[in-house]
Each structure stands twice: as structure tokens, then as C-alpha cells.
């Protein structure tokens, strides 16, 4: 089991640092609303990974991969959500909305009452959950590292926990780095350019997801 865990850790590390919507949402949330909000967005992403992990252990991701209709439905929802995030960011840039207001408009803002924290976590959670690629990767990857004599659900959750710990470390680096640069990045001109770039990146991820056949 130890050898499997070490091998999975290496693979999971590569997956963790690969660019994707999860990292972008954490980065944008940190720039718009501060470190606390960035960590909350990352926590939402991690919860999404756990949801996919449980689904994998129960065989639900296999059904998703086997059913073109189910996969397409999740993919379309993911495309729509990513494009919506992108369009929202471009709209905020066009209106030159201040950082805090821009974050509050789409649930990535922070520093408010507890309900705002839940909204930030929800954004990270939904961004991860509506990406069917995560489910397919988990379905094809996790079973390879679960020994035959080990209960599937606990072993799968252990692997997801390792992935999430790596993800938390990566998000911490992203959040702390963005937090250090936040003062400069929050200047109106820079902020508009950041919103424009983020919007285009989200739309690009949406287009790429739409182009995939699954």
C-alpha cells in the first residue's frame, strides 16, 4: 500500500500543478477579495474533489463515462458555468467595477458575513464539480492505486485526501503569492486588465471543454 501511495503522490502532484479552472478561480478570488477568500475558494475546490472521489468509489463516475448523455449534460453545464464566469469578468472589466464589488457580483468576493464565505466556497465547489474531466481522471486513475485486498471506499478517500493536501499546498502558494502582489494588482488599470485576462481564460477553458468529445 505504501508503494501505491508514493506512486500516486507523484502523479497527483503533476495533476495538481497543471493549469486549470480551479487554480484560476483561486487566483482571481485572492486578487479581488484577499487571502481569506482565496483559501475559501480552494476549500470549495477540495470539497468538489471529495465529491468526485466518493462518486468514483461508488462507481458513479463509471456510469458518467459510460453514458454519453450524462457526460454531455455535465459537460454542457460546466461549459455554461465557465463561460458565465468569463463573461461576468469581462463585464466587470468593462464597467471598471472595483475589486470588492466585482467579487461580490459573482460570489468570489470576501470579507463579508458568513453567507459570503459560503458563496465563495460554492464557487470553487461548483467550478470543480461541473468539470467532468475530474470525474473521468479519478475513475481511470484512482482504481490503479487501490490494492485488491483493501476496502475501496476508505482507500479511495485516502487517495483523494492526498490529492487535496497537495492541492491545498499549491493553493496556499497561489494565494500567498497573489496576496503579496494584491496592492499592485488592485490598481484600477491593472485590475481591468486582470479581469479581461481572467474572463478570456475562463471562456477559453469553456471552449476547450465544449470541444472535447469525452
TrEMBL record:
Q: What is the lineage of its organism?
A: Bacteria, Bacillati, Actinomycetota, Actinomycetes, Streptosporangiales
| Keywords, ordered alphabetically | Cell membrane, Membrane, Transmembrane, Transmembrane helix
Q: Which organism is it from?
A: Streptosporangium minutum
| One Gene Ontology CC term in the entry | plasma membrane
> Which GO molecular-function terms appear in the entry?
amino acid transmembrane transporter activity
What protein is this chain from? Lysine transporter LysE
Q: Has keyword DNA repair?
A: no
Source species, domain of life:
Bacteria
Q: What is its main location?
A: membrane
Q: How does it sit in the membrane?
A: Multi-pass membrane protein
The regions listed as transmembrane in this protein's record are 43-66, 73-91, 157-181
Location in or out of the cell:
Cell membrane
Amino acid at each position: 500500500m505504501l508503494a501505491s501511495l508514493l506512486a500516486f503522490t507523484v502523479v497527483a502532484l503533476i495533476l495538481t500543478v497543471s493549469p486549470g479552472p480551479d487554480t484560476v478561480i483561486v487566483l482571481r478570488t485572492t486578487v479581488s477579495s484577499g487571502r481569506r477568500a482565496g483559501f475559501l475558494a480552494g476549500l470549495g475546490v477540495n470539497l468538489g474533489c471529495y465529491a468526485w472521489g466518493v462518486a468514483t468509489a461508488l462507481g458513479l463516475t463509471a456510469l458518467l463515462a459510460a453514458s454519453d448523455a450524462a457526460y454531455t449534460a455535465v459537460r454542457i453545464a460546466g461549459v455554461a458555468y465557465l463561460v458565465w464566469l468569463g463573461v461576468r469578468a469581462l463585464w466587470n472589466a468593462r464597467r471598471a467595477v472595483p475589486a470588492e464589488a466585482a467579487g461580490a457580483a459573482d460570489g468570489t468576493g470576501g470579507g463579508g458575513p458568513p453567507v459570503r464565505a459560503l458563496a465563495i466556497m460554492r464557487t470553487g465547489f461548483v467550478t470543480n464539480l461541473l468539470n467532468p474531466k475530474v470525474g473521468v481522471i479519478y475513475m481511470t486513475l484512482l482504481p490503479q492505486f487501490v490494492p485488491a485486498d483493501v476496502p475501496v471506499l476508505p482507500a479511495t478517500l485516502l487517495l483523494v485526501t492526498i490529492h487535496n493536501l497537495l492541492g491545498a499546498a499549491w493553493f496556499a502558494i497561489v494565494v500567498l503569492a497573489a496576496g503579496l502582489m494584491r496592492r499592485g494588482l488592485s490598481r484600477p488599470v491593472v485590475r481591468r486588465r486582470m479581469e479581461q485576462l481572467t474572463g478570456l481564460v475562463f471562456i477559453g477553458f469553456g471552449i476547450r471543454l465544449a470541444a472535447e468529445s469525452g
